[in-house]
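**Polypeptide and fold**
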Amino acid sequence: SKTVIGQSGRNHTKKRHIMAKHQWTKKDDVVAFFLYKFGDEDLIFDTAAIAEKLGMSKKSLIARKGNFKYLDTGKGLSHVANSSESIYEKLKDVSKPKFLSFVKKILYPQK
């Protein structure tokens, strides 16, 4: 928590949640690439919930989607990780139903 002095002179406690830097995995990249290509309409979670489930900020997930856009179109975020390039090359021609099955296994693992 961080204490802030307001204009009234009273102390206010402001909680700040700072997420540790996320270590991206291949599975994270698979999900991010799917979201770039197809969106989250076929999933039970929206992008914010998916980011939380994967242990990253929504902003981080959106940035990684921007990396896949760059790999796909030459427009977007150009500082692309080698692992993202590898996932892009492996999955760029995979059909939506097959890709969706990969993503569902990652997001909804069977126990």
Notes: The longest helix spans residues 58-73. The first strand starts at residue 2 and ends at 5.
